[in-house]
Amino acid sequence: MLEYIWLSLTAWFMGFFPLFEIYLAIPGAMAMGLDVVSAIIWSSFGNFIAIPFIVVFYDQLSKIKRLNKYFIKLSQSKFSDRVSRNGFTFILIATPIVGAWAVAVIGKFVGMEKGKLLISSAISIGIYGVILGVLTELGINTFFN
């Protein structure tokens, strides 16, 4: 039981951490021994939790000079214009591509409604998490069985 808690927390943290996000969190958690469903759930939850974190604390985080530079760089990217034009649909597609942290900053910067940002990114992370989990499981079964 303690091992499962440790693996779940590790998967959650890897999903939350901007350099890992869900791309490495799910395969990493499965490689450490977490089952595919738990790896998807904990990694996806860790990846998603960054979005409400940024939405709620955006103003406080932007006061930190280094983070503010990062936020400005993200908000001036080519994705920012697309988010403001296409909103919900673009977030569904962009979240797995640019990452949850970037989508949250861009969505907040362009003034996207919080509910739409949270729902579209949650759906996107969930779908992408399942796809990653299934592909990782298929790869493990193909090469190691």
Keywords, please?
single chain, 145 residues, 86% helix, globular
Name the poorly predicted regions: none
Distance between the termini: 27 Å
Morphology call: globular
* Number of DSSP helical runs: 8
- Beta-strand fraction estimate: under 5%
The computed structural class is mainly alpha
| H-E string | HHHHHHHH
Rg calculated over all Cα atoms: 16 Å
* Helix amount: over 70%
Quick one: how many beta strands?
0
Main beta sheet strand tally, sense and closure: none
Mean pLDDT: 86
Can you describe what's shown?
- This protein has helices at residues 2-16, 21-32, 36-61, 65-75, 78-86, 88-98, 100-109, 114-144.
- The chain is mostly helical and 145 residues long.
Nutshell version of this structure?
This protein is mostly helical.
